[in-house]
Design goal:
The protein has about 190 residues and is an alpha/beta fold. Helix content is about 45%, strand content about 15%. The chain contains eight helices and seven strands; from the N terminus they run βαβαβαβαβαβααβα. It has helices at about 15-30, 45-55, 65-70, 85-95, 110-120, 140-150, 155-160, 170-180; strands at about 5, 35-40, 60-65, 80-85, 100-105, 130-135, 165. A seven-stranded parallel β-sheet has the order 4-3-2-1-5-6-7, with helices on both faces. α3 (about 65-70) links the parallel β3 (about 60-65) and β4 (about 80-85). α1 (about 15-30) runs parallel beside α2 (about 45-55).
Length: about 190
């Protein structure tokens, strides 16, 4: 694992702990020798995670649609900033550049991004770990719902277990380093639970 992608809010949320988690995540990624891949913006938790990684001496790679750059939200101090034509191109490039994916607190866009790469893993398109950094219980309700999906037979346990859950960046990195992907894509063995 060389690069870690972070999906997170373009705002700060209502709790100071969300920004502190973004700072500690960026710092932990850099201090452990990984490069950060993220959405390329200077605003909200996105800017915070990038700034922290840069301050810790890390490499930070941003991927931003040109339309957002034109609105002047692009981070100008990154190691690399890739400008792309669409959100689809952004997500594809971020996935290609990354070896693992973390969702910090964020909104619908954050969920859409982590769910897409998790789905790609379930389909066998990659074997990269995905995880939710559950700061102050931010993802508690979602985790319960994901467990409910499994109980109701819409998600196999082996696929549900692909989503790593941690309360700290260091805990997430430990889970990622121990991660073993499922041995077969989700539709291969229908009787597997």
């Amino acid at each position: 694992m060389k690069t870690i992608c972070v999906f997170c809010g373009s705002s700060y949320g209502t709790r100071d702990n969300y920004a502190e988690a973004a700072r500690t995540t960026g710092r932990a990624i850099a201090e452990n020798g990984y490069a950060l891949v993220y959405g390329g913006a200077r605003v909200g938790l996105m800017g915070t995670v990038a700034d922290a990684a840069l301050e810790a001496g890390g490499k930070v790679i941003g991927v931003l649609p040109r339309a957002l750059q034109e609105k002047e939200i692009g981070h100008e101090g990154l190691t690399e900033l890739h400008l792309v034509g669409s959100m689809h191109e952004r997500k594809a490039m971020m996935a290609d550049l990354s070896d693992a994916f973390i969702a910090l607190p964020g909104g619908v866009g954050t969920l859409e991004e982590i769910f897409e790469v998790w789905t790609w893993g379930q389909l066998g398109y990659h074997q990269k770990p995905c995880g939710f950094l559950n700061i102050d219980g931010y993802y508690d309700h979602l985790i319960r719902f994901l467990d409910h999906q499994t109980e109701e037979g819409f998600t196999k346990k082996v696929m549900r277990d692909m989503a790593q859950i941690a309360d700290t960046p260091e805990g997430m990195l430990d889970l990622f380093n121990a991660y073993e992907p499922p041995s077969a894509p989700k539709w291969i063995k229908r009787d597997e639970t």
